[in-house]
Write a structure and sequence with these properties.
- The protein has 94 residues and is of the alpha/beta class.
- Helix 2 links the parallel strand 2 and strand 3.
- The longest helix has 11 residues.
């Protein structure tokens, strides 16, 4: 089982938090570190459109994962390069 924390650890290995600028908003911005992750939507920016797409493609926990990743496969996490554009979205986590 892969968790949000596993992804955070992997990402920090690629881009250590201590290299971030003081104004950078890095790390987990919303969610639960213990949550299981089955699929990720990667985006340059977290916009309302990206969040809406992720919500529409969210995988119900009762369904098995697809055996082949398709262009419109379900997602349950977002990883982005840029921070969210609105203050309301900038940091919400458990």
């Amino acid at each position: 089982m892969t968790t949000v924390q596993d992804i955070l650890t992997f990402m920090e290995g690629l881009a250590p938090y201590e290299l971030a600028e003081s104004w950078d908003n890095v790390g987990l911005l919303c969610g639960d570190r213990a949550q299981e992750v089955t699929s990720v939507l990667c985006a340059l920016d977290v916009t309302e459109t990206v969040v809406q797409e992720a919500a529409e493609r969210r995988l119900p926990r009762s369904k098995p994962l697809p055996s082949v990743i398709l262009p419109k496969s379900p997602v349950d996490s977002i990883v982005s390069y840029q921070k969210p554009r609105t203050k309301a979205m900038q940091r919400r986590r458990k």
